[in-house]
Amino acid sequence: MRKTMTGLLAGIGLMWACGSSAQAQELTIFWAEWDPANYLQELANEYEAQTGVKVTVETTPWADFQTKAFTEFNAKGSAYDMVVGDSQWIGAASEAGHYVDLTDFFNKHKLNEVMAPATVKYYAEYPSNSKKYWSIPAEGDAVGWSYRKDWFEDPKEMEAFKAKYGYDLAPPKTWAEMRDIAEFFHRPGEKRYGIAIYTDNSYDGLVMGVENAMFSYGGELGDYQSYKVDGIINSEKNVKALEMYRELYGFTPPGWAKTFFVENNQAITENLAAMSMNYFAFFPALVNEASNPNAKVTGFFANPAGPGGEQFAALGGQGISVISYSDNQEEAMKFLEWFIKDETQKRWAELGGYTASAKVLESPEFQNATPYNKAFYETMFKVKDFWATPEYAELLIQMNQRIYPFVTAGQGTAKEALDSLAADWKATFDKYGRNK
Amino acid sequence: MATAVMTSLDTKSRSASRGMSDIRIRNLFIIPTILFLIVFNIFPLIYSLGYSFTDFRASSNAPANFVGLQNYRALLNDPFIWLNFAITAKYVIISVTGQVIVGFGTAMLLNRDIPLKGLLTTLLLLPMMLSMAVVGLFWKLLYDPSFGIINYTFGLGSFEWLSNPDMALYAVAITDIWMWSPFVMLLSLAGLSAVPKHLYEAAAIDRAGPFYTFFRITLPLVAPILMIAIIFRTMEAFKTFDLAYILTSQPTTEVISIRLYKMAFQEWQTGRSCALAYIVLIMVLAITNIYVKYLNKVKER
Questions:
Q1: What is the DSSP letter of A188?
Q2: Is the ipTM of this complex over 0.85?
Q3: Which of A161, A413, A436, B265 has its C-alpha lying 20 to 30 A from A29's C-alpha?
């Protein structure tokens, strides 16, 4: 009996020993479940071929991503070595010590010159202008638009449009033109609708959508350094932008009240809408004939300008961070050193990833590789993002609570919604002592 | 006292031959359960009560500060929280009433000699055996305005069940009624079959009408077991999360548990969400107590 026990214990010990030594050669990256994660896995497979270190990209649906990641962080779990986390997490994750400080790494490799400025500012640096960096820009992303070229270029439609609105039918340059085009193509009797926009209020879908309007209308969410919001989030420009978003909602397909990237791509593939808002990250599926029967007749344009000529877009995308509780931090840093190399970034772009490397973005090779890469390149230099403070989730939920009833059900007015939001945000910042 | 109600161990059994006493066997069964309850229920319950008086956030390393009743005060003054409670109350009333009417009605229909009664009852129980999340995903497809079978069957065109803020809560309640009426039916059926036949015979001899028989014989005799079904369903409906969360994201369907989930796991306001959980707990306890009092009254009759 005793002998068997000793044998068993020795066996367990041996397994444990093997297990831990094998672990050092394995890295796990946590990300959301979408195409770019598959591209990253392909890239990581090439790393394994070169170094023998196995890198697994583990994914979870977008709706759970934030909850699952922070549950693991809060438990100080070592299940993941790196995370490709959302840009607005950076405050919460850095202040709580979940992310390893990458400032030295950043400076050593001069990453603020290598990567596009907006990606450094929003994916890596926290607090604003502090020169402290917490992640390496990995997947650049912003919101752009796809449209049905065949509908736009149909001579009959062009003639009718010109007769009605007095100018030529073409991809819109301004939000006002976009409204006209949406109205023009909105024909519920023919089961054709004007436009597809984000309305999902469970995470940041709706807020991102509205931000596109606000930023182009010249509005801001607040002062990211002094935390002042009153008079900024409820400015006249933002009120106008929100009213425009509400108006566009009137030209969406039926049941368009909980829609995000999946539905907005379906709007194009299922012949539902003339134009559709979406992150650039989802455009590869639209040029692929296997996933979009209308691939040949799908075009793309950048987020249009507002009435004052300003033109910005809401930032998506993520940086890659090393988790403080990982047992393999050194291995993870080695992976990052490989990841930021020019040739790796080039390969990353070839696989379908949206590199943040300025050199690759500027290359004609990249810009001509797909019908939307040029629009992406232009957009990445004029993006703005949501708050990145640790309490961003509260701010996000408050914004959803205030604007969703107005956008989808026309309850109250845009001014009322934004005034209430300004009060909510101020109370939240007071609670955390931000605006002292 | 406790040992008095226990039947003694059979002296010839294996346990007895191993020298185990009644008390030892009782402890063997009960102590693990009690320990489990203490570790996973009682301890977190008390621990979270402590947290509900602090500004603790599980997402940060900052120490928890005692804030007194601040969390409770803020929650009870938050108009959105009151709205969540009002939505929950409306949902509980619609869904439980619907389940009792449909469930009890089906039980009445089944409480007679019909062919294939057993098979029919089993088939009717199927919805109850499905996972909430799966039911939610299926009904989302059924309700779809463009290709959903419900609009197609009833010729409703592109009626928006889930994106219409006034309709969404009813749509969630209809799904809940579909899923849980069988539960009420099952309990009602047990109650109905226990009503002594001779009472109906006596009523028939006295020429009592069907309404009189129903309200004076059937309902009073089934009432206690029906009350138990209502208590269970009310508690469940009050805590409902999955169905409403999966089907729609309308603010008009944000029941209190969804708000609680968001507060705890998206905003990471751990202290405040503990306070909200306590408010919900007290409410459920109060409602259940009223029911139980009423149940005892019904039983006495």
A1: G
A2: no
A3: B265
Chain B residues lying within 8 Å of A401, measured CB to CB: 80, 251
Strands A143-148 and A82-86, by their bridges, are unpaired
Say if residue A301 is in the same domain as residue A253. yes
Contacts of A396 in chain B (CB under 8 A): 266
Q: What is the pTM of this model?
A: 0.82
Burial class (CB in 10 A: 0-12, 13-18, 19+), A372: buried
The model's pLDDT over A58-79, given as tens digits with 9 standing for 90+, comes to: 999 887 898 899 989 988 999 9
Residue in B144, B146, B250 nearest the CB of A257: B250
Residue A101 has pLDDT above 90, yes or no: yes
B116/B110 Cα distance (integer angstroms): 10
Answer for the pair A420, A179: CB distance below 8 angstroms, yes or no. no
Contact A294, A148 (CB under 8 A): yes
Contact B158 A390 (CB under 8 A): no
Using CA atoms, how far residue B131 sits from A192, A313, A345, B174, B176, in Å, is: 36, 41, 44, 16, 12
**CATH architecture of the domain with residue range B72-300:** Orthogonal Bundle (1.10)
Minimal CA separation from B113 to chain A, in Å: 46
Same structural domain, A180 and A213: yes
Residues A233 and A263 in one domain: yes
Tell me how far apart the alpha carbons of residues A342 and B126 are, in angstroms, rounded to a whole number: 58
